[in-house]
Design a protein that fits this description.
There is one protein chain. Helix content is about 30%, strand content about 15%. It is of the alpha/beta class. The protein has one domain: Alkaline Phosphatase, subunit A (3-Layer(aba) Sandwich). The chain has a nine-stranded mixed sheet with strand order 7-6-5-8-1-9-12-2-13, with helices on both faces. Helix 9 packs parallel to helix 12 and helix 10 runs antiparallel to helix 12. The longest helix is centred in the middle third of the chain and has 29 residues. The protein is globular and about 60 Å long. The two termini are about 20 Å apart.
Length: about 400
C-alpha cells in the first residue's frame, strides 16, 4: 500500500469533506484551524481490546468507536517502536528516514539521525501550534511552535544507553527532554518529577527466586508511571492547549512482552512467572481506558481525536524465536513479540472521530497504513503533503466521501 502515490487525494478530500473545506496546500487560518489530538498506544492489540469492549470494560474507547471509524492499521515489516513512530512522523520508509530500530549505527536512535523532515516541523512551519508528550524516538527534543517532551529512548541517570529506560525528568542526561527549557520548572512544580516512558522489565537475575515480589513491585511501578503520565496529559491539555497534540502510552507493550496471558503449551511459559498476575496485560487496557477518559474531557464536538498504535503483539509461536528474542538489554526472556517479518500478523489499531468523520464505521482489511497518518494530518490543516511522503490522505474515513 505505502508504495503507491495518490496525488489526487488531497484535492478530492477538499471537495468531499465539509468540515475542512480547504484546497490542496491551502493553509488554514487561525480562525478555521482544526484542533487535533492523537493518542498513541504502543503495541495496542485488537485481540484483547475487542473482548474488553464487548464486556463493557472500556466504556471510553467504546464511545469513541461508536462515534467514529475504527479498523486495523497496516504496519511495517518487523515493526518496533522507534522504527514505526519515525514512519508516523515522516511517511517515509525507515531506510530513508534514518531510524531503522532501537540501535542505529551502533548507538541508540535519536532525532539527530532523522533524514526526513518530521511532522512536528512541517506543522510548526505551517503556523500550527504543536504539543507532544511521551512520544517515542523524539529525544533530544527539537524546537517547535509549542512544546515537546520526549518519551521512549530518553537517556538518563542509571540508563545511559536510553534503551527501555524510565528516567525521571530530573534525571535526564545526554540531551534535552523538554522544549522550551523553561517548561521544566513549571512541570516539576505542577505535575511533579514524573517518569519518562514506562518501567524497564526486571532482569532474569533479579527475578530468580523472587518472582511474586518482583513482579508485583514492577506492576505497581507501571501503575504509578501511568498515573503520572495521566496527570501530565491533563495538565498540558488544560494549561498549554495547542492546535495539534500528540500523546503516547507505552506500558501496554512493555507488559505484553513479559506478561502476556499465555497458556501452558505456549512457548516461554513459566508457572513461577505467569501465574502471578494473569490479568496484568488486559489490566493495562482497562487502565488505558481511564487515561482516554481524561483526554476526552478536553475533546469537544469540533475536535478530531485519533487513537493509533504502531503494531499489535502476539505470543511467541516458535521455539527458535523465543530463544533468540530477549529484551533490548538481552537480559529478560519474553513470551510475546511483534517484530515478525510478516507485519500483517501484528497490525496496529486505528480509531478516529471528529467533525465530518463517519460514525460507527469499521474499516475492513488494511485500507490504512502507518504511512498514511502524516499526510492525513497535514491535510486537515490545509498543508501540502511533501513529495517524498509514501502515504496518502485517507479519504474513506469521512462522511461525504463517495467511492467512484
Amino acid at each position: 500500500m505505502h508504495g503507491r502515490k495518490h496525488l489526487f487525494f488531497p484535492f478530492l478530500l477538499a471537495l468531499c469533506v465539509t468540515p475542512v473545506p480547504l484546497g490542496a496546500g491551502e493553509a488554514s487560518s487561525p480562525q478555521t484551524r482544526p484542533r487535533v489530538i492523537v493518542l498513541g498506544v504502543n503495541g495496542a492489540e485488537w485481540d484483547f481490546l475487542r473482548p474488553l469492549l464487548l464486556r463493557g470494560e472500556m466504556p471510553n474507547l467504546s464511545r469513541v468507536i461508536e462515534q467514529g471509524v475504527s479498523g486495523k492499521l497496516q504496519t511495517v515489516s518487523a515493526p518496533n517502536c522507534p522504527k514505526v513512530y519515525s514512519v508516523f512522523f515522516t511517511s517515509t520508509p525507515p531506510e530513508q528516514n534514518g531510524i531503522t530500530g532501537f540501535i542505529v549505527g551502533g548507538t541508540t536512535a535519536h532525532t539527530g539521525r532523522l533524514r526526513a523532515e518530521p511532522l512536528w516541523s512541517l506543522l510548526s512551519k505551517g503556523g500550527v501550534s504543536v504539543g507532544m508528550a511521551n512520544v517515542p524516538a523524539t529525544f533530544p527534543v527539537m524546537p517547535v511552535e509549542g512544546y515537546m517532551i520526549s518519551g521512549m529512548l530518553t537517556r538518563g541517570r542509571g540508563c545511559e544507553d536510553g534503551l527501555l529506560c524510565s528516567p525521571k525528568l530530573s534525571e535526564v542526561q545526554g540531551g534535552t527532554a523538554v522544549f522550551p527549557p523553561e517548561l521544566v520548572a513549571e512541570l516539576l512544580e505542577n505535575v511533579g518529577d514524573f517518569y519518562i516512558d514506562c518501567a524497564r522489565m526486571p532482569t532474569a537475575e533479579a527475578l530468580a527466586g523472587r518472582e511474586p515480589a518482583v513482579t508485583l513491585e514492577w506492576l505497581a511501578r507501571v501503575s504509578k508511571i501511568r498515573e503520572q503520565q495521566t496527570k501530565l496529559f491533563d495538565y498540558l491539555l488544560a494549561q498549554h492547549p495547542t492546535d495539534f497534540t500528540f500523546l503516547v502510552q507505552s506500558c501496554e507493550d512493555r507488559v505484553g512482552h513479559w506478561l502476556y496471558p499465555i497458556q501452558p503449551h505456549n512457548v516461554g511459559y513459566s508457572p513461577k512467572q505467569h501465574t502471578i498476575a494473569v490479568d496484568a496485560f488486559p489490566n493495562q487496557y482497562r487502565a488505558l481506558d481511564r487515561v482516554l477518559g481524561t483526554v476526552l474531557k478536553h475533546v469537544d464536538q469540533n475536535t478530531f481525536l485519533l487513537i493509533i498504535s504502531d503494531h499489535g503483539i502476539k505470543p511467541l509461536r516458535e521455539k527458535e524465536e523465543h530463544q533468540a528474542h530477549k529484551d533490548h538489554a538481552g537480559t529478560t526472556p519474553i513470551i510475546a513479540k511483534h517484530d515478525f517479518e510478516d507485519a500483517d500478523d501484528v497490525p496496529g489499531v486505528f480509531v478516529a472521530m471528529g467533525p465530518g468523520i463517519k460514525k460507527g464505521a469499521r474499516l475492513m482489511g488494511f485500507p490504512i497504513s502507518v504511512y498514511d497518518i502524516a499526510p492525513t494530518l497535514l491535510h486537515l490543516y490545509g498543508l501540502p503533503v511533501p513529495d517524498q511522503m509514501r502515504g496518502r490522505v485517507v479519504v474513506e474515513i469521512f462522511e461525504d466521501y463517495r467511492k467512484d
